[in-house]
Amino acid sequence: MRAGAMAVLAALAAAIPAAAQTPGNGAVAPSPEMARFQQYVTSPDYLKSVETVVLGGEHDITPECKGAKALGRVGLVLFAMPKFKDGVAAPVAGAWKDRIRVDRCGSQVTHNVLIDVEPDGPHVGLLLPGDTDLPVPMQFRALQAGAEEAMKAGKCRDPNRVIVSNTRQDKVLEPVKADPKGILVAGKWREVWTFRACGKDQKVGMVFSADGKGSATFQASPAK
């Protein structure tokens, strides 16, 4: 797995509270500044910058696909309410995940971009692609375990040649529940993550179990 990408994911994930990351959670109370935020995230300059990040990540996954193109937004999840200053178009604080659909030379995949606006400016990074329900703070640890399983299955010894190319939800094994603050307290679910390991696709089954403390344990195994 590319060390740089994993480091960015870990740093960004640490900035997002687990309470805002419960699977299926993403509702945010209305704010007077939401109109400004909507105008910002639909502006051509913002969309172009996000799509540039997404297509860069797509090239890392499938460099052989020369015709990858962004198809537009399929969702946006707020983690921390945006704040603005008078006369400044971009927010000065806030965190959200933008979901952009990409045509991968005939197949479609969704990329997830995390934007975390700090006092020193926006920090932007790619999360796991696809439809994983795993809360952002847990993605880094689970990604390491999944990559190791993919390397074993594909007999790939070079961690720099392993990258996750897609994730999908498989089944709910036990009902997922959150407390009134949105913290994950119960549930068990399975996802299938696809990795490219030394040029070959390897599917890994990822089973997540809530630990009752806002996080989850996980187990990785080859997926059929």
How is the topology of this model organized?
Blueprint lengths: L2 H12 L19 H8 L2 H18 L7 E15 L9 E12 L2 E12 L2 E6 L9 H19 L7 E17 L5 E14 L2 E11 L5 E7 L2
Antiparallel strand pairs: 1-2, 2-3, 3-4, 5-6, 6-7, 7-8
pLDDT below 50 for ≥5 consecutive residues: which ranges? 1-8, 18-27
Number of helices: 4
Biggest sheet architecture = 4 strands, antiparallel
Sheet-strand content, in percent, reads 35-45%
Task: Please tell me the total number of domains.
Answer: 2
Euclidean distance between termini CA atoms: 22 Å
Give average pLDDT, whole number.
87
- The dominant shape is globular
Encode the helix/strand succession as letters: HHHEEEEHEEEE
> Structural class given helices, strands, pairing?
alpha+beta
What is the strand arrangement across the widest sheet? 1-2-3-4
Instruction: Provide the gyration radius in Å.
Output: 18 Å
Number of strands: 8
Q: Please bin the fraction of helical residues.
A: 25-40%
Oligomeric state as shown: single chain
Keywords:
about 220 residues; 4-stranded antiparallel sheet; 2 domains; disordered N terminus; 8 strands; alpha+beta; 4 helices; about 25% helix
Any overview of this molecule?
This protein is of the alpha+beta class. The protein has two domains: 3-126, no CATH class; 136-222, no CATH class. The protein is built from four helices and eight strands, in the order H-H-H-E-E-E-E-H-E-E-E-E. It has helices at 3-14, 34-41, 44-61, 136-154, and strands at 69-83, 93-104, 107-118, 121-126, 162-178, 184-197, 200-210, 216-222. It has a four-stranded antiparallel β-sheet with strand order 1-2-3-4. Strand 3 (107-118) and strand 4 (121-126) form a beta hairpin. Helix 1 (3-14) runs antiparallel to helix 4. It is globular and about 55 Å long. Mean pLDDT is 87; it is low at 1-8 and 18-27.
